[in-house]
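Exercise 7. Predict the joint structure of the components listed below.
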Amino acid sequence: MTELYDDERLDYATADKTMKIIQSPSVFSFSLDAILLANFTYVPIKRGRILDLGTGNGIIPLLLSRRTHATITAVDIQPRLISMAKRNVEMNDLQEQIAVVEGDLKDLQPDIGHSNYDVVTCNPPYFSTPAKTELNQNEHLTIARHEVRCTLEDVVKACKLHVKPGGKVSVVHRPGRLVDIISLFRTYKLEPKRLRFVYPKKGREANMLLIEAIRDGQADLKILPPLYIYHEDGSYTDEAEAIIHG
Amino acid sequence: MTELYDDERLDYATADKTMKIIQSPSVFSFSLDAILLANFTYVPIKRGRILDLGTGNGIIPLLLSRRTHATITAVDIQPRLISMAKRNVEMNDLQEQIAVVEGDLKDLQPDIGHSNYDVVTCNPPYFSTPAKTELNQNEHLTIARHEVRCTLEDVVKACKLHVKPGGKVSVVHRPGRLVDIISLFRTYKLEPKRLRFVYPKKGREANMLLIEAIRDGQADLKILPPLYIYHEDGSYTDEAEAIIHG
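Solution:
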């Protein structure tokens, strides 16, 4: 029996309806960005440790658990989201694989472990300056979307701190921040290896980027083929369809 | 009457055959990269000053001259290429618009002028470590392709030194160097504004990048739609055709 708050609803996390997820339009709902990051991220199949920073309702760990037997630690700073993520893990019987931990990525408790993870994922807040109206209206969404509790540098620093040397860091963000991301990655010795741009449709500018870096890696960046989400007529492209509903 | 060395030949610089160019397979022949950079580069139409660093046989100034009345200064370190570029400018009656100057971009003579250009273009050497065989075999090609006479940092530093505050710097390079380029641009206060990746065909990784930065600009990068060169059957895409033969 799963308890839901009044503002929560039960959705499917995956198109095959084998995985349920609690969401809330006013607190946290997962986006296409999280699905694309989970799909883009390298995972060790049999064993290993994965850390998801700013996990929200746990969507990325839930999706990754379908592709790996590695243990996954899911961290978020908001107690309300931790509650949601914990119930999501329990509802899907994933307590053995996914540990949900409340914490601030700027100062994670020692047992999270430094240089301890094969893979660190993060779908961080995208916007540096919060609009005042949004700040006042909804604290949950503001913290998830704006850099009020952590900056991009805090995120990159935390990724570096917790990933093993030679381990992978995988992040989704907006193209407008690419220069910041790449500069910070270099500063923290995370060498970008794979970069993929997501375009809403042909002829448009990219509106999302997926980047994977290796701690202490050698310089050797590959720019993957572009990922288009929609055809001209608004239907999903085959590749987007396969990722979202596959 | 144009004099040609034994290893030189006379080609057309443009598909409409209105512009001729001296090339040499053993000294310098222009590539698709130069054509794409000339096409990608912003130019002021009526007046202004443009600087092309490492101009080779002058292909980029020649192509830009068709789109602008701005004066263009073309610099190269190799006397043999300066000779070729000068004859190309004369042969096309562009002496009024294009000045060809022999010089090392690490130490350009004072009359090139600091903070003096609206636009600086560069198709720099791509490879950091020259293969020994190539080094020994052909000095001209080695200098054009490998960082033996200037590093990427020298190039970026020179772009910064000569472009006006608010002016544009436009460079073509390989995706593997994107992290270096972006980091160096930031170091020298050249803020990337437009970035376009060139893919040989669909499904492949990008093999070229075109980047434009603004000196002292605000962070706001746009990732332009990808540019594909070939269809599956090896014929040019419409866009590549329009750039190359248009």
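Discussion. Chain B touches chain A through 29 residues (CB under 8 Å).
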